[in-house]
Amino acid sequence: MMQTCPLCGSRDTRHYHRDVRRDYHQCERCELVFVPPVQRLAPAAEKAVYDQHRNSPDDSGYRQFLSRLYTPLRERLAPGACGLDFGAGPGPTLSVMFEEAGHPMAIYDPFYAPDPAALACHYDFVTATEVAEHLFEPGRELERLASLLRPDGWLGLMTKRVTTLQAFTRWHYILDPTHVVFFSDTTFEWLACHLDMRLELPAADVALLQRRPR
């Protein structure tokens, strides 16, 4: 059955891969790979997976993991720039790292910190680490996050990227049942063009998009 791309809305999609649990389709326009809606987890089952996460600011290994986004983004921020950590999870840590560096932070998470006031402000930067791959409606959500940025603001995304079909079939990243959309370099290039933002890809799992000045 023809599937609609949840990022760009195109109906020009094709079947990409099937494993023992679910199917994966790819958009011909933006090259997003995605799981069809009928094969996604229900919210309660999705949250049950997240409840198993044991992330903490006291975990030096987790801080090192987050530094892949933290370091290149912080290098691009003005002193005192304020940010939002979207999808902070049950143990917010990236926000703590930025606050320690002098950047005031807000957090939002649909399960653990569903504060609508955090999405009603504007920020110098917005981060989403290991979040994009979970989004059921990535087009709508990423447009919303970009709209929260002030001119010259940064959207920092951390998510592993699709390379080839052969690699995809052996990829540990697709084994997580909460991972439902998968970006590639081309996908991020499409997104940057769509949002009229400047794109940098400083690492294999990091994308930085900067809002243009007015």
Automatic annotation (TrEMBL):
Record's protein name: Class I SAM-dependent methyltransferase
Enumerate the InterPro entries for this protein.
SAM-dependent_MTases_sf (IPR029063)
Q: Name one GO biological process term.
A: methylation
| Keywords associated with the record | Methyltransferase, Transferase
Molecular function (GO) terms listed? methyltransferase activity
**Source taxonomy lineage?**
Bacteria, Pseudomonadati, Pseudomonadota, Gammaproteobacteria, Oceanospirillales
State if Disulfide bond is listed as a keyword. Answer: no
Q: Name one Pfam family in it.
A: Methyltransf_23
**Signal sequence bounds:** none
Q: State the organism named in the record.
A: Billgrantia montanilacus
- Does the record carry Protein transport as a key word? no
